[in-house]
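Q: Protein A?
A:
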Amino acid sequence: MSLEPRIVKESLSRIQPVQAKAARYFYGRLFAENPRMRALFPPGMDVHHDRLFQAIGEIVGSQDSPETLAAHLGRLGRAHRRFGVQREHYAAFGTALVATLRAFSDEWSTEIETAWTELCRSAADTMSTAAERDAERAPPWWVAEVVGHDRRAHDLAVLTLRPGCPLPFVAGQHVTVQTSRWPRVWRPYSIANAPRPDGTLRLHVRAVPAGWVSGALVRHTRPGDTVLLGPAAGGMTLDPGSGRDLLLVAGGTGLAPARALAEQAARSGAARAVRLLVGARTGAGLYDLPGLRALESDCPRLRVTPVVSGEPGYPGLRGALPDVLDRFPDLAGHDVHVAGPAPMVRETVTALQRLGVPLDQIRHDLLEAERRAVPVLSA
């Protein structure tokens, strides 16, 4: 490790006890010195206060691997395009950050300030360059019309969206969404279908407590409304070089990426078998089962297996998803994708490894959540 990464890591760790105060100071200083930048942010700043040093820590922690750092900063630069962030905004961010670290550090020196200034300059240059290159081939966002809004439960809806111009994506990826009800607030949702000739895409959205975007999409969105979509991203996609059979394990709205992968794999013409395990607490919670059965009837190599964990009288397979995996033979010969609530994903990955599935044959959306670029300037 070079001297500079060690310096910034140590100085960042020393302000950890006062990060909350430092974050409030940072944004106050940033907006006082750059009033127009306030328009880049949503009205509520609580999420940003929590997120600021997480995002900085990810950048600092990636310094040991130049390739990892460059890839991470590139994702951040491209992600910030949808907020309207320009090259000069990064410079203002760096100035405010160094001032904040100086104000809250119990140890500070010219050497520390130089290291942080250089890191901010280098990061800003990498992010700006990535954004400018991305602007040559794609817009920062797509305007999409809501052409279908199917309320499947009081807190869940399936939305069908038609972008005004083609939005390229691959099954297993996600897009970020902004609604007119909450300007400048973006949230990621997995796409629930493989690419279609008509360019439409589907999202499975569950309204969560205090979820600004999810609540708006489920309860206050109607056909004819428009939303903004960020570019597709994510690597929970099919391995194009693998001919192994495919197992998809999905809980809750984790069904969305699993359904897209099942659709793509089953219709690809490859000879691989595809099994989709879809879990819910009750039979009523299997909100997309009729559509899955229709997809299954169209795709001879696809088998859909519902699994219910909390309804003793359910006539099908019962149990938690991680606990029923031993019912299926030769899982070690499969590629496996897992999506859903974090505890289920972790337990499923552990069970798969116990059953002999190599870790490099398992992809899951917890990894995707970690890979999604955490916006530094806006959200």
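Q: Protein B?
A:
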Amino acid sequence: MSGTDVGAAGGERLRRWRMVLGGGDADGTGCALTGRDAAMDAALGALYGGGGEAGSRRTSGARSAGLGGSAPNVARWLGDIRTYFPSSVVQVMQRDAIERLGLAALLLEPEMLEAVEPDVHLVGTLLSLNKAMPETTKETARAVVRKVVEQLEKKLAARTRATLTGALDRSARISRPRHHDIDWNRTIQANLKNYLPEYRTVVPERLIGYGRAARSVKKEVILCIDQSGSMAASVVYASVFGAVLASMRSIATRLVVFDTAIVDLTDQLDDPVDVLFGTQLGGGTDINRALAYCQSKITRPADTVVVLISDLYEGGIRNEMLKRVAAMKGAGVEFVTLLALSDEGAPAYDREHAAALAALGAPAFACTPDLFPEVMAAALEKRPLPIP
């Protein structure tokens, strides 16, 4: 490597360290930023530094910017970070700005919502602000939420329908199928003992076929969703999956959200945006009361799957909650407990309640959106759940 190359590599290292350390006399790099680097550093400093204004352009000195309380400044900063950083980084920075700098109130302004990069976490924040949102902002907020919902549906719907259709077909096999309902692979496997070498064929004494899952309701699914503030991302994903399940004629889907009160949003499942705006994030938790409501709606226990999505921090009657779960399982209901339905990693949850549910044969675990179709398929087929 020539001296010129070594010098260039050293300069690039100093530039990167300067971006990481944030500048000032103490960083020891002696490197000044210009152009695009200076603009990126200013955007980072506005969030992770202190004081000053977003969107300022500095070429040297310590990070000392800030977002202040001005919507125009914040909107300008949101535009800057979308210019300089990829979408995944923008979403993280937006989340940090809302949490670190208390910018939630500014999201009630239409120009702010038009500037943000929509994602699941932003939807959760908007839903928590729903009751305080002025009428001038609500249409813009719905547009932001709809954009995220449509992205999630596009990503999740086809695979979910395919996975669950297969599970329903397998669970609905019949022993006297019509010709076009015969599962030939399983029929041949079951009749291999009847192979006739001279004719090089299998005589099928027993036919195995698929039930006509698409023509009638085969299973019932009840999604029981904790809408306390910590479950925001789970509420978003569960609402999208609820709409997908409701679109399948062979599954009768009910969606119930709860805190200390219960809201049945089943009649809004044709539009998950309506479902989301029907929730009210925050408040207490009464799981026992919610399960009592769900239990009252079960008409075919052996064909019903109840999915409780909650961190299990119960504010109601703990022993009654466990008794209800035991009663449902005893009647033949498949009971699934998800501590979270999101990509956020390991959630905080009540370990004592989780252990008590596991002792009843209803293990509680966190589930990613990608795993959810397999979990539901296993529940519909009454086989062991694919617990991570």
